[in-house]
Design brief:
Number of domains: 1
Structural class: alpha+beta
Distance between the termini: 26 Å
CATH superfamily: HIT-like
Largest sheet: 5 strands, antiparallel
Helix content: 25-40%
Strand order of the largest sheet: 1-2-3-5-4
CATH topology: HIT family, subunit A
CATH architecture: 2-Layer Sandwich
CATH class: Alpha Beta
Strand content: 15-25%
Radius of gyration: 17 Å
Number of strands: 5
Shape: globular
Number of helices: 3
Length: 137
């Protein structure tokens, strides 16, 4: 699997680097939703987060607060959104796991809202059981 992120990770395309270690890379989004919009990307190639190795997912998770703190301090943002899409149907445009760190400011107007549904308790009990039974350690 190769993507534009592979090109960036391998140094064949430039980026505005903000953080890197042996497992992850973070850089400014070229189509930002707000000033400081940063992408945090594992170096392991995987299209969806459920396809990452446990080790790579752990390294990605460990980098989130570090990069978020840096974005908040550098931009003076008052809040931020973390957005992570898995698959084209979920809004993913680059088929490589990545987390959007999107700073929010008092004047921010972008929104990530949806219409809320309802949860029938009898269906919820069955669905929770099926999900629980499907999770493998």
């Amino acid at each position: 699997m190769s993507s534009i992120f592979t090109e960036i990770i391998e140094g064949r395309l430039p980026c505005n680097l903000v953080y890197e270690n042996e497992s992850v890379i973070a850089f400014l989004d070229i189509n930002p939703a707000s000033q400081g919009h940063t992408l945090l990307v594992p170096k392991e190639p995987a299209e969806r987060i459920d396809q990452l190795s446990v080790e790579s997912a752990a390294e990605l998770g460990a980098a989130i607060p570090k990069v978020c703190r840096g974005v908040m301090e550098a931009t003076g943002a008052v809040a931020y959104n973390l957005l992570q899409n898995n698959g084209r149907e979920a809004g993913m445009t680059v088929p490589h796991v990545h987390i959007h760190i999107i700073p929010r400011y008092p004047q921010s107007s972008h929104s990530f809202t949806w219409s809320h549904g309802t949860l029938d308790q009898s269906e919820a009990i069955d669905l929770a059981r099926r999900i629980k039974d499907s999770i493998k350690d």
